[in-house]
Amino acid sequence: MALSSTFTLGLLQSKSRGSPEKNLEITVGQIRKAAAQGAQVVVTQELFLSDYFCVKQDERAFELAETIPGPTSDALSALAKEHQIVIVGSLFEKRMAGIYHNTAVIIDADGSLLGTYRKMHIPQDPAFEEKFYFTPGDQGFRTWETRYAKLGVLICWDQWFPEAARLTAMQGAEVLIYPTAIGGLADESVENVRRQHLAWETIQRGHGVANGCYLAAINRCGAEAPINFWGQSFISDFSGEILQRASSKEDAILIQSCDRNALESHRRTWPFFRDRRIDAYDSISQLTSD
65-101, pLDDT tens digit by residue? Predict the structure, then answer.
């Protein structure tokens, strides 16, 4: 089936309500609202089902993980089929005992599970103790052709790595999607947090420019000690222009129509992929130049 000239994104930003049951209820409500407002591709924030448990190392948090397919992915599939929408949902995956992933499910508009993306880059910083929980992804970088758009899905820390964006875009992605959980620590200075946020937004907008893609960053909001999440989910275009940005503190649903014809025209006149010098990039696969 030929794709239409536009596709409409719906980004879901929210505070955690403290329990998987309540968070699922809130997210289901947001999905229904987004669909009613015309969203065709609806995306959750990172690990939307729970608090951001990675603030500390706690073995009990592994009980939050579930298999895929599993109860939450099944619930999202049913919603996708009911509303004829594509859903990208970020989950804590139990692959087997001792192997857990930070995983996004990609569900097409007929409710079918097209596949998963397992977060490739795993951070380890104060209050972001992700290496304790997550095994790095082993599926590589992928793009999914859904009913409405070609989606490149990455997760949070992946957003700092241009290689991840490039390899995903090379597979035909029209939009790069980053479910995210990021913010500043309560004891950091206001200026330091401001600079971190500026860097976070700037590098992602740059990925959209360098790869000729729309860019969707979906962040959680609210305070979960010791992190004050930034919120400010946003959608930018292939020129890096911010099309929509959510508030820093409140739940939000961003709805944005994306123009596929404008995207194609832009790629013709800014042909970054044509002009890449792949014959000169061998050393990019090395850890250092030493």
Answer: 999 999 999 999 999 999 999 999 999 999 999 999 9
Which of 54, 156, 221, 258 is catalytic? The answer is 156
Q: Among 15, 119, 130, 201, which one carries the catalytic annotation?
A: 119
Global pTM exceeds 0.90: yes
Given its phi and psi angles, is residue 191 left (phi above 0), alpha (psi -120 to 50 degrees) or beta? Answer: alpha
What gap in Å lies between CA 93 and CA 149, rounded to an integer?
25
Is 119 one of the annotated active-site residues of the chain? Answer: yes
Q: Measure the CA dihedral 78/84/89/94, to 10°.
A: 40
Residue extents of the structural domains in the chain: 7-266
Report which of 160, 161, 156 is spatially closest to residue 133, judged by C-alpha positions: 156
Catalytic residue among 15, 46, 130, 213: 46
The CATH number of the domain covering residues in 7-266: 3.60.110.10
